[in-house]
Amino acid sequence: MLHNTDMSSPQGGQIGHVSRSIRLQTLVRLRWLAVAGQTLTVLIIWGVLGFPMPIAQAAILIGALAVANLILSAWFPATHRLGPKSALALLCFDLLQMGALLFITGGLGNPFAPLICVPVIIAFASQPLRHSLILLVFALLCTTVLSLSPYVVPWYEGEHLRIHPIMQLGVWFSIASMMVFAAFYAYRVSHEASLLADALVATEMILEREKHLGQLDGLAAAAAHELGTPLATISVVAKEMERELGNDERFKEDVQLLRSQSERCRDILRRLTSLPAEGEEHLRRLPLSSMMEEVIAPHRQFDIDIKLVQKTDGGHEPVGARNAGILYGLGNLIENAVDYAKNQVIISVEYDDQRVAITIEDDGPGYSPVILSRIGEPYMTSRTRERSEHAGGLGLGLFIAKTLLERSGASIRFGNRDNGQVGARIRIEWPRSIMDRPI
């Protein structure tokens, strides 16, 4: 089970560190959008409104961004992905270009000054935290320099739109706080999305492996069928050779060995061929009681007493198609309960014409309020820090189990035992029609 592997964090798990990279073509397209926006803004301010501004310097700065874009597009393929250092260098260039353009057009008095936050947000959404923090510090430094700009904001000729120092200080704090908040928000959203994507990939891998294991018997039977004909031919030829050679001592022993080994191969293939016929009902159709015994059996070898309670008296027992996701998910939840139980785990099964429910209870420490509010998230820490060294905790393994069971149509509720009893309680419930589903 994945539960017994330390996967409480992506760095320590088997999935690997989340790769955070950005495609160069994406950045190039964003830069072309910036070139178009800056060009249009300058043309409107200078050409349409007629506000005086250093048009030559502005054109040089916009042209530098366009030339850099052309060089990148010609030098690298469209599918090229930037490493953290390369992405940091390009975003620093973008920040410097935008900062210089704002500097010569009024600094923090320019109404477009908040756009200096854009490269920082891109970095925190796509790059490692260490490199993003470097860009954040650089952006704050650029914002501070903008507050010292000697240039005035482009305005009507003969009028000077001067910004009071206190107002400039307020604008600086506004941009800085927006930059920090937006960067943190972008990082958290993208990081959680990456973790969720990795966890879902792991879920698909586990389910695919379980399905492959269930197909091995069919593959063995197919192989036995295909090998049966050539092996029968070998056996016939060996008998003919033995008859023709008679009592020839030179080949008698070799021919007898050939016949005996061919007979042995036929016996092995006969057993392989009989596996699907003998176990087909067990493999394809699984009563609820058999499914529970199969899930519980691997955990009975521990010192914890596992008690299976049947709460339904009589009635037609659900019998459905064998589902690898349900088997794995229940097994993982039971393993969690065994890991945290002190003496006993109680598994209750009940069903009627409308539903099938399984309740797993242990006499361990139970769930803390913090864990209950986040339970089922990938890479979450364990119930108690003391137990995390011995058990993998409620991280990726629980997320996979919860995902697989919910995909099977189950609803899952996590909580603690009531009536003064200590321990955790998990209730899994399916509509009866799902558990009685035919092959």
TrEMBL record:
Keywords associated with the record: ATP-binding, Cell membrane, Kinase, Membrane, Nucleotide-binding, Phosphoprotein, Transferase, Transmembrane, Transmembrane helix
The keyword Ribonucleoprotein belongs to this UniProt entry's keyword annotation: no
Transmembrane regions: 30-49, 55-76, 111-126, 133-153, 165-187
MF GO annotations: ATP binding; phosphorelay sensor kinase activity
The organism's place on the tree of life at top rank: Bacteria
Any Gene Ontology CC annotation: plasma membrane
Annotated membrane topology: Multi-pass membrane protein
Class of the enzyme per the UniProt entry, highest EC level: transferase
Annotated compartments: Cell membrane
Record-listed E.C. numbers: 2.7.13.3
Classification via Pfam families: HATPase_c (PF02518), HisKA (PF00512)
SUPFAM superfamilies the record matches: ATPase domain of HSP90 chaperone/DNA topoisomerase II/histidine kinase (SSF55874), Homodimeric domain of signal transducing histidine kinase (SSF47384)
Record's catalysed reaction(s): ATP + protein L-histidine = ADP + protein N-phospho-L-histidine
Main location: membrane
Domain called Histidine kinase: residue spans: 222-434
InterPro entries from the UniProt entry: 2C_sensor_his_kinase, HATPase_C_sf, HATPase_dom, His_kinase_dom, HisK_dim/P_dom, HisK_dim/P_sf, RegB, Sig_transdc_His_kin-like_C
Cited PANTHER family: SENSOR PROTEIN CREC, SENSOR PROTEIN RSTB
Protein's UniProt name: histidine kinase
Originating organism: Aliirhizobium smilacinae
